[in-house]
């Protein structure tokens, strides 16, 4: 009975341990989850969102310049000394007076400065939104690159482990032959040296894998990457006859989609309206104005010397007025001219920014296309090389097992195969990344 109790208790403890372990191990992240998390939590994205909010406030302020303003003023004056009275005599009077004033001004015409400024701010807002999208796109490409680097490192580690496993198996077989006197001990030492070399390669690849995990975790701004892992998606099959859209076609599509291009174009349009607003300073401005004034004095009296009440004073002292005002610029120390000249220079600068952004985009697309084609060619060549190296290694292994080749020749064939497999993997992931970048320029989301 006691043994049954102990057995049940042991099973319960094992189950609890497995549950806790499962809870401690987070789910593997997909590429989409990594990108979404990075965009949501990245500091540069948050700063870009704040910049966009500032532009929204600037646009709202520009629109509010159309509205009337309304200001009020109140003052309290204390007077001491001789004052003229209604009886035309002077007396020492200490008085207290309160003044109230309310005024408004409505812009009627300002040389189209307000409307042009609103349009300029609207384009500034659009440019800010595209700048924010540019930050998100850069993060997306960086995350995709880091994600693929992890997958590449994982396959390199797997290849290294397989190579080391084969070598260890060969060590065992060689040991048996040395013990039986069929091979010299030097062959065993050569194979053992090869195993040590492959163990070092495996450690290097494992360390690089950890560094790539760290790189991705840092891009995600995770506090710790200890339990961080990613999903291993089913990668697209690479065909030797794979065709790519030409850089010219990709460029044409990207011109209407790429945030950097749209941002510079919006900034150019903003500068053009800023120039129109600057030219508007040479025109007269017309505005309507109105005001209301009142006061109360504690020493005001009527002709009989009776103190006038607060209510009556407000009724008697009330003054209202309105009018139309025109301001004509004549000479203001060349401020308007300088402002216009600077606005013209700003337009020319923004035109160069647009041209430079288009050239940079074309350069990036052409580079990505060239790298993709080169990676495809390397992949095709390395496929043939791996097939040849596998057959050469198989043949070398058979000859080594019967003593027709020495350990050095066997190791050389094995190293050639390992290098060919590594080159094939590198070309594979390079091609996948470059094609994904080309698709991204065309507006296709990066997915695996």
Strand order of the largest sheet: 1-4-5-6
Query: Unreliable runs, pLDDT <50, ≥5 residues?
Result: 1-25
Write the CATH architecture name of the largest domain. Up-down Bundle
- Helix/strand order: HHHEEEEHHHHEHEHH
How would a crystallographer describe the biggest sheet?
4 strands, antiparallel
CATH topology of the largest domain: Outer membrane efflux proteins (OEP)
**3D shape:** elongated
Q: How would you classify the quaternary structure?
A: single chain
Q: How helical, in percent, are the residues?
A: 55-70%
CATH top level label of the largest domain: Mainly Alpha
Radius of gyration: 41 Å
Averaged pLDDT = 85
Q: Kindly report how far apart the N and C termini lie.
A: 56 Å
Structural class: alpha+beta
How much beta, percentage-wise?
5-15%
The number of distinct structural domains comes to 2
Structure write-up:
The chain is built from 10 helices and 6 strands; from the N terminus they run H-H-H-E-E-E-E-H-H-H-H-E-H-E-H-H. The protein is α+β, with helices and mostly antiparallel strands and 448 residues long. It has helices at residues 2-24, 31-41, 43-64, 113-179, 185-220, 247-255, 259-279, 310-316, 335-401, 407-441; strands at residues 69-79, 82-84, 90-92, 95-109, 285-297, 319-327. The chain has 2 domains: 28-67 and 111-283 and 331-441, Outer membrane efflux proteins (OEP) (Up-down Bundle); 68-109 and 285-328, Outer membrane efflux proteins (OEP) (Single Sheet). This is Transporter. GO terms for molecular function: efflux transmembrane transporter activity; porin activity.
């Amino acid at each position: 009975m006691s043994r049954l109790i102990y057995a049940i208790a042991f099973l319960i403890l094992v189950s609890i341990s497995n549950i806790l372990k499962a809870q401690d191990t987070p789910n593997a992240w997909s590429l989409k989850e990594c990108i979404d998390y990075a965009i949501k939590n990245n500091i540069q994205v948050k700063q870009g969102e704040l910049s966009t909010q500032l532009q929204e406030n600037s646009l709202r302020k520009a629109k509010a310049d159309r509205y009337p303003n309304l200001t009020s003023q109140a003052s309290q004056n204390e007077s001491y000394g001789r004052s003229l009275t209604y009886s035309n005599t002077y007396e020492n009077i200490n008085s207290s007076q309160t003044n109230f004033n309310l005024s408004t001004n409505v812009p009627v015409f300002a040389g189209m400065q307000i409307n042009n400024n609103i349009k300029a701010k609207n384009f500034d807002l659009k440019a800010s939104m595209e700048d924010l999208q540019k930050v998100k796109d850069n993060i997306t490409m960086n995350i995709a690159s880091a994600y693929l680097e992890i997958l590449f490192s994982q396959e390199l580690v797997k290849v290294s482990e397989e190579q080391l496993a084969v070598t260890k198996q060969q060590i065992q077989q060689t040991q048996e032959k040395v013990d039986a006197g069929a091979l010299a001990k030097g062959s065993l030492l050569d194979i053992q040296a090869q195993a040590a070399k492959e163990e070092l390669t495996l450690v290097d690849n494992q360390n690089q894998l950890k560094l790539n995990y760290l790189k991705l975790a840092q891009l995600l701004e995770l506090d710790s990457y200890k339990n961080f892992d990613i999903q291993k998606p089913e990668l697209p099959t690479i065909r030797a006859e794979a065709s790519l859209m030409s850089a010219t076609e990709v460029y044409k599509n990207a011109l209407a989609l790429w945030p950097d291009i749209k941002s510079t174009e919006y900034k150019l349009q903003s500068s053009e309206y800023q120039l129109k607003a600057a030219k508007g300073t040479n025109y007269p401005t017309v505005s309507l104005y109105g005001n209301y004034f009142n006061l109360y004095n504690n020493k005001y009296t009527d002709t009989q010397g009776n103190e006038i009440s607060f209510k009556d004073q407000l009724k008697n002292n009330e003054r209202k007025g309105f009018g139309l005002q025109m301001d004509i610029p004549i000479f203001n120390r060349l401020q308007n001219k300088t402002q216009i000249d600077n606005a013209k220079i700003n337009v020319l600068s923004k035109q160069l920014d647009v041209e430079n952004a288009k050239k940079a985009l074309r350069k990036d697309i052409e580079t990505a296309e060239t790298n993709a084609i080169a990676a495809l060619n390397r992949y095709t060549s390395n496929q043939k090389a791996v097939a040849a190296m596998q057959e050469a290694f198989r043949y070398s292994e058979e000859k080594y097992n019967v003593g027709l080749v020495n350990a050095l020749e066997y190791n050389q064939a094995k190293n050639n195969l390992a290098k060919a497999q590594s080159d094939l993997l590198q070309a594979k992931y390079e091609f996948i990344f470059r094609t994904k970048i080309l698709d991204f320029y065309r507006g296709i989301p990066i997915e695996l």
